[in-house]
Amino acid sequence: MTHxxxxxxxxxxxxxxxxxxxxLSKVGRxxxxxxxxxxVKRDLTKExxxxxxxxxxxxxxxxPVEKAENRVSLGEVVTPILPLRRMxxxxxxxxxxxxxxxxxxxxxSFKARGLAxxxxxxxxxxxxxxxxxxNGNAGAALAAYASxxxxxxxxxxxxxTPKVNVDEIxxxxxxxxxxxxxxxxxxxxxxxxxxAVGWFDVSTLKEPYRIEGKKTMGLELxxxxxxxxxxxxxxxxxxxxxxxxxxxxxxxxxxxxxxxPERPKMVAVQATGCAPIVxxxxxxxxxxxxxxxxxxAAAGIRxxxxxxDFLILRAVRESGGFAxxxxxxxxxxxxxxxxxxxxxxxxxEGAATYAAYRRSLDEGLIKPTDRALLFNCATGLKYPMTAExxxxxxxxxxxxSQFKA
Length: 405
Ligand SMILES: *Cc1c(COP(=O)(O)O)cnc(C)c1O
Known about the structure:
The chain has a domain at 81-105 and 210-382: Rossmann fold. The chain has helices at residues 37-43, 46-51, 85-91, 111-125, 137-149, 163-171, 183-197, 209-224, 241-255, 276-282, 309-318, 328-342, 348-362, and strands at 4-9, 15-16, 31-35, 81-83, 97-101, 129-133, 152-158, 175-179, 200-201, 232-236, 265-271, 322-326, 372-376. The model has no long low-confidence stretch (mean pLDDT 97). A hairpin with a 5-residue loop joins strand 1 (4-9) and strand 2 (15-16). It contains 13 helices and 13 strands. The strands form three sheets. The chain has a six-stranded mixed β-sheet with strand order 4-5-13-10-11-12, with helices on both faces. A four-stranded parallel β-sheet has the order 8-7-6-9, sandwiched between helices. 37% of the residues lie in helices and 15% in strands. By secondary structure, it is α/β, with parallel strands linked by helices. Residues 109, 111, 137-138, 204, 236-242, 300-301, 347, 349, 377-378 line the site of pyridoxal-5'-phosphate (PLP). Its EC number is 4.2.3.1. Its cofactor is pyridoxal 5'-phosphate. One of its GO terms (molecular function) is threonine synthase activity. Keywords: Lyase, Pyridoxal phosphate.
């Protein structure tokens, strides 16, 4: 029960058959899944969808899993879209400022969407061992979903990946190795080990199904907003899976008649310490060369090179959006500001989108009337917080006036 017709190379359009595992296309670019959307249009109504309860599996007609028993689920929820009312007021915007809070998903990040789909497809294909490079969240989602499916995993992390992420991956059943290099160096190890070990490479965009999982963010937000789209979406961009996936989702929704041709401006947000997509955008290039000495503590967007660079850039340009790099200080000041003033604990990558939103308003790149949607991609609890905490000695008389100041 799937509406998949075939797969195709995102660069050349070359076709591949569905129903068997694929990695990159012959020219080394991502492969996309194609559906019989006329059939989906006949089979699925908005009313039917509204009656379904289960998280993103509600969109099964637009997902590639053939047999229901192969769906690997850890209890995915429809993630809430919440207003940042106090921040909106503070920046003087009249259009809604919204956050889609992906930190509510299993494993605490939106990587759950992509890996739920990739692991479900691996189960369908009988794959027994999967491997990936990760800065943390993708590895945790792979470990959890693969363990749920009884699939073995090997995960490679840059050796400065925060301990909490590394432990999370190992604790959920993966064989984890710390590597003295960046995520692309780890990716090379996975690629080169394929023949010797026989594992399946589930690196970002190097197989077709993580995009399909991330696509559900676009389907979900459209349904949540009453089949309308925001004016602008700020997306913290690493490998760009989510941005590419949402762009694909909007096209599919239009083709099944659920939305019209309108699109949000797509804004790719990066950190100034690792901004390959921003540089390529500004230089009018279609591809983004490797960013040297990449650094940002927002690990989810510390991705020096993206195999789907041209797909990110295409979506951003077609949408009339832009790419923006925000300063490290600005990311962490925004993180603290939104937590303190709004009571919303973003992750630093999510905070980067708020920083970019504010600057875009200042620079007139978006209008104060625009309805803007930010992505908070993970729970802020996975990141070390620095806060000032005072001490109190209960063995001496307490001066209560200090609490009024
Ligand atoms: C993976 C990740 C990103 C980047 O997502 P892509 O879709 O790969 O660009 C951003 N933030 C966090 C917290 C992540 O885990």
